[in-house]
Design a protein that fits this description.
alpha+beta; 3 domains; three-stranded mixed sheet; Butyryl-CoA Dehydrogenase, subunit A, domain 3; Butyryl-Coa Dehydrogenase, subunit A, domain 1; Butyryl-CoA Dehydrogenase, subunit A, domain 2
């Protein structure tokens, strides 16, 4: 597992440039992406052009070598302009983190990461499976492997942006005689798999993530199986990175909602000079919630980086950090709804209208999806179980 610390970088300049990209390529198309439930092609053409898809890849392989926290800042900015773009970008970077943290010693994956940098490949994932009730730590499908090749078939109720991805990281049992929890992670090139759509994607929010269900059949080289068990990949990377990056983009979504609310407050203040409108008080209260949200993300990201820097794999074996990273997801997924709802109250009927410059309909619909991505009830259930067996520290 790669344990190198974050690369020194001028994040202010980097993010300033990203804002310009977003203003040009994301903002003008966000409404159409949402309305038509289509992949945000313009966004990713621009992100590819700026080599943003390889932000986590080490510099020796051509990437930016940013930390997870720094990539979270990128997700936050994207979330201010188009939440679907930000979610796709976050899910892509979760998969890149799995390769960077757990496969750099394998020649195939080092070469693949170089290819990812050169071609700005987009990675998706297939971790859920029909019949498992959303439990991504168990699989029914099994890898069929010999000395040089593999085949697999998986019924996936959701593969976000699968038809637009260049590769999909797929969880499955290590072998046909392995228990459901003995999983591996396999990188499947899009050209080496067949996706047969089994459902559609017509949702309230995050419509541009294009996440229908598929039957996935694939074949490839045995080298495409990541060299360590998925259990380790999940606890050390996929689980914490997902919750950190998702929370970051939700923060960006909340920030844009408050920016729109602030526009309404300023307009009201101009109409009554010298009088502080009640909406300003409501804005201050909402900013307090956003401050709490940002602080929890930054603190948890810093803790995660310290754990990586210590290069102590056993640090992820206890329940303490798993509970804290779950709590981050739980709190941020609730706070983003709270903040957007407050912003809509501040903005009034203009925020409620779909044809207004300060409309928050898309923001509110996207915000409600946060609690459903790995359902909060499931996470609370896991936390409850861990609380019973956790030793007090």
């Amino acid at each position: 597992m790669d344990q190198s610390g974050p690369r020194p970088v001028d994040m202010s300049s980097l993010l300033e440039g990203l804002h310009r990209v977003c203003q040009h390529a994301l903002a003008p198309h966000a409404e159409a992406v949402d309305r038509d439930a289509r992949f945000p092609a313009e966004s990713f053409a621009a992100l590819r052009s700026g080599a943003w898809l390889s932000a986590l890849v080490p510099t020796e392989l051509g990437g930016m070598a940013l930390s997870v926290a720094q990539v979270g800042r990128i997700c936050e900015v994207l979330g201010r302009y188009c939440a679907s773009t930000a979610m796709i970008y976050a899910m892509h970077q979760i998969q890149v983190a799995c390769l960077v943290h757990h496969a750099l010693d394998a020649p195939f994956f080092r070469d693949y990461l170089r290819e990812l940098v050169d071609r700005q490949l987009l990675l998706a994932s297939a971790t859920t499976e029909a019949g498992m009730g959303g439990d991504i730590r168990s699989s029914i499908c099994a890898l069929q492997r010999d000395a040089t090749s593999f085949t697999l078939e998986k019924e996936a109720p959701v593969i976000s942006y699968g038809e637009s991805a260049d590769a999909i990281l797929v969880t499955c049992r290590r072998a046909s005689d392995a228990p459901r929890s003995d999983q591996v992670l396999v990188l499947v090139r899009r050209s080496d798999c067949v996706l047969t759509k089994v459902s559609e994607w017509d949702t309230l929010g995050f419509r541009g993530t294009c996440s229908p269900g598929f039957r996935l059949t694939a074949q490839g080289s045995a080298d495409q199986v990541l060299p360590c068990p998925y259990a380790r990949i999940h606890s050390q990377t996929m689980h914490p990175v997902a919750h950190l990056l998702w929370s970051s983009l939700w923060l960006g979504l909340a920030t844009d909602a408050l920016d729109r609310a602030r526009t309404a407050v300023r307009a009201e203040a101009r109409r009554s000079p010298g009088v502080t409108p009640i909406s300003a008080t409501r804005l201050a209260e909402a900013e307090q919630v956003r401050f709490s949200m940002r602080t929890s993300i930054e603190d948890t990201a810093a803790e995660y980086q310290r754990m990586l820097d210590r290069a102590d794999a056993t640090a992820f074996e206890g329940f303490g950090f798993a509970i804290r990273i779950n709590n981050l997801k739980l709190s941020c997924s609730q706070q983003v709804v709270d903040i957007v709802s407050r912003a809509m109250l501040i903005g009034g009927i203009a925020s409620y209208r779909n044809d207004s410059q300060t409309s928050l309909g898309r923001h509110l619909r996207d915000a409600y999806g946060a609690a459903l991505m790995v359902n909060n009830d499931r996470i609370l259930g896991h936390n409850a179980t861990m609380q019973i067996v956790q030793r007090e520290t």
